[in-house]
């Protein structure tokens, strides 16, 4: 969760949150729909609405989050910057393995890394769940192949990341309205 | 796509007229020219046909029906009208696939007989080849500043390779080969190689065309020719090979449209070659590099080639259905696809792909 929670939102935080969310959701919507859309007649035309929907959902959520808690938006910007750096570095690292390489690809690595990292734990949970389900289906269903497992994994990443933005906005408003944060409580009993 | 006369050193073909088509974009043309500059000229081998015994000739044919207007006059051979034509597509992994054995076991064509007596047009076939290669000192030096693709097939586990020109001569077949790219850089003393698509046939080929597909990752040149089944209407046959994937940035910004763009570019170029007047049945086959038989490009090509056999999920490269054949006839055509004949070869014959084959039947009515 946030390390810089500031339950005072601001207009600028709302704008920043909207921009960050829109960017993250657009990239995640694109990544998540790439493989499934390649199996449709529409193809690239099917990716576009998924990217727009992802951008809208995460953008509105980001704006709502910024209006409620400017500090958390700041945190997610930092996380996104770190993710972009890691993404770019990863593309640089695999350069020797690629037949064709360009600085544009490093930029693409940064774009995806930033989008995933700024969406936080939601993307990680979605990725993990997608990977487990995808690999299990690949192993158990004869007609499923490795790209199908990859498709489920990337879809999980996207759905988790975009869902994460929604969850953050709801969570921030719940705290803002005096509600309880979505923290699991537990008791340790010593016998 | 822009259909044009040969321009530049890459589009010269001694003793053969090849029509070239390429994308309209000047930027793409410039990059395609860079790729092309490291390759040699296309290769055309005209058919030598075994004469039939005179008592077998019931009705002399002029080797393939009417030629389209304004085309070269093809060699003519007396022959009886054939009943069917086998069309196959096979990625031979830069010469690793054993073509001689494939032709013998899957098509019933004897290369030994073809070499000695000339091609037997009564075992008619057209083989659409991908990853054919040619090794020759005629391939130019690598121009400075031109980046090359990785080589394929030069490692020790690919020791036995046959180049496409040698195979055509060895089997007495028609050949049209147009390189797409150089096969990597050669070591000192090593023969230069290029690789690309080819058409091998036991029947005459004419009206040769080379189609540079929209540039995504690597230069891809589809080769097209009009095949002349003895005593039957001519058929346009096309061998193509699409890219596996574009780079990451392009995948994200285009929605992974690499193969769709190349497929639609090829279809458009073929329409332009037909010029709206010539009506030829057209068979295109090649390596789509598809992961699934439901991919967008397969759906679109099946729509543009409505008589295509149903794309199947059966793997041709490992478990992936990468190779497909598409068919388009026209009203009044006497060509019919035998859908049940659409099959995958049971063996890879040394390649990393299995071939796909189908049979076209001809009717007299």
Give the helices and strands, then pairings.
The complex is a heterodimer of chains A (191) and B (365).
Chain A: H1 11-38, H2 44-68, H3 70-93, H4 103-119, H5 121-140, H6 146-176
Chain B: E1 2-4, E2 18-22, H1 26-36, E3 43-45, E4 84-91, H2 99-107, H3 111-117, E5 125-135, H4 164-171, E6 174-182, E7 193-201, E8 205-212, E9 221-227, E10 235-241, H5 248-254, H6 258-274, E11 281-287, H7 296-304, E12 323-328, E13 335-344, E14 356-362
Parallel strand pairs in B: 2-8, 4-5, 10-11
Antiparallel strand pairs in B: 1-2, 3-6, 4-14, 5-7, 6-7, 8-9, 9-10, 11-12, 13-14
Helix pairs in contact in B: 6-7
Quick summary:
Chain A has 191 residues and is mainly α. Chain A is built from six helices and no strands. The two termini of chain A are 32 Å apart.
Kindly describe this structure.
The complex is a heterodimer of chains A (191) and B (365). By secondary structure, chain A is mostly helical. Chain A has helices spanning 11-38, 44-68, 70-93, 103-119, 121-140, 146-176. In chain A, helix 1 (11-38) crosses helix 3 (70-93). Residues 181-185 of chain A have low confidence and may be disordered. Chain B has one domain (9-51, 87-362): Deoxyribonuclease I, Chain A (4-Layer Sandwich), CATH 3.60.10. A 7-stranded mixed sheet of chain B has the order 1-2-8-9-10-11-12, with helices on one face. Helix content of chain B is 19%, strand content 27%. Chain B is built from 7 helices and 14 strands. In chain B, a hairpin with an 8-residue loop joins strand 8 (205-212) and strand 9. The chains are: A mainly alpha (191), B alpha+beta (365). Chain A binds chain B through residues 27, 30-31, 34-35, 37-48, 91, 98-102, 104-105, 107-109, 111-112, 143, 145, 147, and chain B through 149-150, 217-218, 247-252, 254-257, 260, 291-292, 294-297, 299-300, 313, 319-320.
